[in-house]
Amino acid sequence: MSKHDESRRAFLVGAAVGAVAGAGLVPDALAQTHEQHDTATDAPTTTAQAHAHTGGHGAFLNDDDAATVAAFSERLMPGAPGKPGASDAGVLNYIDLALAGAYADQQDFYRRGLAALDAHCRTTYGKPFALLAAAQQDEVITALEGGKATGFSWPTAQAFFNTVRTHTMEGMFADPVYGGNKDFAGWLLVGFPGAQPLFSPADMQSKDAFAGAPIIGLQAQSKSPIRRT
Fold first, then answer.
1. Other CB atoms closer than 10 Å to residue 124's CB: what's the count?
2. Which end of the chain is more exposed for a tag (fewer CB within 10 A), N or C?
């Protein structure tokens, strides 16, 4: 992994640590979407998990747009041996499902942003973003972040970059029930224990990673017996 890749990963992981611990990457809108779709809580998989088995897109993104989003998110959070990246964590699946549900109001934003992105890449490099070499993709992303990529009006280049980066972080670190964070890849990366039913006072005071029980998510919690008084 290059120093550039390591720096980008370090930034996203560092930004996610506090947000994950405070559940800041699980928006209320996504929680509502889960409640609407996951009506059979004792089913073997959620709608989001089942969708991942079909290739991770098709709820909103077509094949070309899915390839672009997958390549973009992987450059934002590149994988390496022993270090899961966006592709490993199913970020594409998360974004596709979110755009078909809780983030449906951003569908036109993505359509226009992805079209402008590929137009910029074809003008500059003669190829769409997904077919560029990793170094060229990084150049494009840097241009987007700095507002220097050509051909963008609405959304602006910076707005598109910021939105995809935010959604990549959500797909890496939100609860797996929403379609990302496959096999708890993001939580394992930052040492987050998941939706544990109870933390002792000692656990709350400890500065060490919690290791008292297996990592569990909302899907497992939904199957737990409800205590009645």
1. 16
2. C
